[in-house]
Write a structure and sequence with these properties.
- The structure is a single chain.
- The chain has four domains: about 100 residues; about 90 residues, PAS domain (Beta-Lactamase, 2-Layer Sandwich), CATH 3.30.450.20; about 70 residues, Helix Hairpins; about 160 residues, Histidine kinase-like ATPase, C-terminal domain (Heat Shock Protein 90, 2-Layer Sandwich).
- It is about 50% helix and about 20% strand.
- The chain has 13 helices and 15 strands.
- The model has no long low-confidence stretch (mean pLDDT about 80).
């Protein structure tokens, strides 16, 4: 098929040859008249087919495409092929959109697409139902204008989306939603809402059961422990051949009481839906106290003290619940002491524990690094699970309950913070509590 430009060129050349021939056999006037008439007819035919094309664009339908003649036949043939392909693509796109719509309607989760400026671009019917949205009226509106929960707004703007966020529905307080934000292309975000009401009810029942059982066990264990301690202290009350058994019973009773206390602590933290107090914490003072406690624990557990180093940015404070965060720091430091040998008698080298508090990339980081036994990578992701132990026999020896890191995790979540763990077998481990910029308080230098 010849190019349209070639066809137009050939027509003009043919008309020129005819005009030249007429000029030779007749006169220049006749040749010019014939040449002009030819161009005029050529122009009129183009205007006619342009009119036909424009008329078709007013109501474009495949069946209504003109057949055309000459070079216009090629134009309309190409247009027909384009429209057929376009129709096929449109059909396939509509089919894909219909399938996508069916899939999103079948999903129990609600989906909302947010723009870079957190405006609603699209949402599913489930999202409309769960979050009280209406795509027709709420499209292009900022999501914070429609979901006015302060915790949600903080979660949205902190841009820490590694953990989902629980939101109690303002339309029905009995409904609990889990919100997860996933950033994707062009700084957009996908908001996923999931109805966690039933799961939350089961979780509340579990927490209540653990709390009630722990409360019920605490009193009889206290009584049993008291009697064992009294009998051990009474002269001649326990025969010498039974004293070792009584010592074992007393030790296990104390261990059970520690587990119950940790279970009650964990249950209290999990069931507390209120935000932690937001007072400024004097971190240098708090961490000095944690270091002193660590020195005492080292002496008690190992008879010889570790080298416990403290490096603190004295200008750096954070806001939060002092008692809860003290529990976090104490747990992490005590774990480092429990799982780090106090020293090597043959070399005289002591175990080292490094406590630091500093700024890192705009975040406040409390970290504890030890020179202990280390942890295999396969265990790290499960360390914060209740009662998960890397080495059960060693945990019993060191007096651990298996709940410390679970308590740490839940307290940090309440403070919008996260726990980072790195470790290498035979070299040591580093546990870091990372606090967001929103909780940082920088003390002004004194004059």
């Amino acid at each position: 098929m010849l190019d349209i430009r070639w066809k137009a060129g050939l027509f003009v050349c043919a008309l020129s040859v005819i005009g030249l021939f007429l000029w030779l056999i007749t006169s220049a006037t006749t040749a010019l008249i014939v040449f002009s008439l030819g161009l005029l007819i050529y122009l009129i035919s183009h205007i006619y087919w342009l009119h036909k094309l424009n008329s078709w664009f007013q109501a474009p339908e495949i069946k209504g495409i003109p057949e055309g003649s000459g070079m216009w036949e090629d134009v309309f043939t190409t247009l027909l092929q384009y429209e057929r392909n376009n129709k096929l693509n449109q059909t396939q796109l509509n089919s894909a959109l219909e399938q996508f719509s069916l899939v999103t309607r079948a999903m129990p989760d609600g989906l909302v697409i947010l723009s870079a400026s957190n405006e609603i671009e699209w949402c599913t019917p489930n999202a409309e139902s769960q979050l009280g949205l209406n795509l027709i009226t709420d499209k292009n509106l900022p999501v914070v204008n429609l979901i006015r929960d302060s915790n949600f707004i903080s979660y949205l703007y902190n841009e820490i989306y590694s953990e989902p966020f629980k939101l109690r529905s303002w339309r029905n307080p009995d409904i609990v939603l889990e919100i997860q934000l996933l950033p994707f292309a062009n700084k957009q975000k996908l908001l996923i809402s999931r109805d966690m009401t039933q799961h939350e009810k089961v979780d509340v029942m579990r927490r209540d059961f653990i709390a009630n059982v722990s409360h019920e066990l605490r009193t009889p264990l206290t009584v049993v422990g008291g009697f064992l301690e009294t009998l051990n202290d009474m002269e001649g009350a326990v025969p010498d051949n039974l004293k070792s058994y009584f010592a074992m019973m007393e030790e296990q009773t104390i261990r059970m009481r520690r587990i119950i206390e940790d279970l009650l602590t964990l249950s209290t933290i999990e069931s507390n839906t209120e935000n932690p107090e937001d007072s400024e914490i004097d971190m240098p003072s708090l961490l000095k106290s944690v270091q002193n406690d660590a020195i005492g624990l080292s002496q008690t557990l190992h008879k010889t003290k570790h080298n416990i180093h403290l490096d603190v940015d004295r200008r750096l404070n954070i806001s939060g619940a002092s008692d809860e965060l003290r529990s976090v720091f104490t747990n992490l430091v005590s774990n480092a002491i429990r799982y780090t040998p106090a020293g090597d008698k043959s070399t005289g080298k002591k175990g080292e524990v490094f406590i630091s508090w500093a700024l890192r990339n705009g975040e406040a980081v409390f970290s504890v690094r030890d020179t202990g036994i280390g942890i295999e990578q396969k265990h790290i992701d499960r360390l914060t699970e209740r009662f998960y132990r890397v080495d059960r026999s060693r945990s019993r020896e060191t007096g651990g309950t298996g709940l410390g890191l679970s308590i740490v995790k839940h307290i940090l979540i309440r403070h919008q913070a996260k726990l980072e763990i790195t470790s290498e077998l035979g070299v040591g481990s580093t546990f870091s509590a990372v606090f967001p910029k929103a909780r940082i308080v920088i003390k002004k230098a004194s004059a």
